[in-house]
């Protein structure tokens, strides 16, 4: 009987995590939508901003793929959309032609700085911070 209780408690915790995740993503999406961004867009911009202190510093797409919760193809489409919007640039890695570099543009850096407080406020509202 104790194992069922423990299993039920784990299941309840798991559902709470999923619910919190869904509420948080929705809140971030709502906050960023007027700026043409969604939660996943912001995550990529935020990771690029954190990894590059100056405009033009690059991050390998492969490194982003390990940190965002998107498939490789979904991440590629997202980066292509950000590039089309002038927020990032992509280039082929000279050392490894299979690798792709991505970097923030000044427009991307400015937009990130503008929406960062909105994303942090959404996190505080949903996660109680």
Approximately how much helix is present in the residues?
Answer: 55-70%
In terms of quaternary structure, the protein is single chain
If you compute it from the alpha carbons, what radius of gyration comes out, rounded to the nearest whole angstrom? 18 Å
SSE order, one letter for each helix or strand: HHEHHEEH
The major beta sheet can be summarized as: 3 strands, antiparallel
Can you describe this structure?
With 129 residues, this protein is mainly α. Helices cover 65% and strands 9% of the residues. The protein is built from 5 helices and 3 strands, in the order ααβααββα. The chain has a 3-stranded antiparallel β-sheet with strand order 1-3-2. α1 packs across α5 (106-127) and α2 crosses α5. It is globular, with a radius of gyration of 18 Å. The mean pLDDT is 88.
């Amino acid at each position: 009987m104790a194992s069922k209780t423990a299993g039920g408690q784990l299941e309840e915790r798991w559902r709470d995590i999923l619910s919190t995740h869904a509420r948080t993503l929705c809140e971030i999406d709502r906050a960023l939508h007027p700026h043409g961004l969604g939660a996943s867009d912001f995550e990529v911009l935020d990771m690029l901003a954190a990894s590059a202190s100056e405009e033009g510093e690059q991050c390998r797409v492969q490194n982003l793929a390990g940190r965002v919760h998107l498939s490789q193809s979904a991440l590629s489409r997202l980066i292509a959309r950000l590039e089309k919007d002038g927020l990032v640039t992509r280039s082929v890695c000279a050392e490894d032609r299979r690798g792709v570099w991505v970097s923030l543009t000044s427009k991307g850096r400015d937009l990130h700085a503008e929406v960062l407080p909105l994303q942090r406020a959404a996190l505080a509202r949903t996660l109680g911070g």
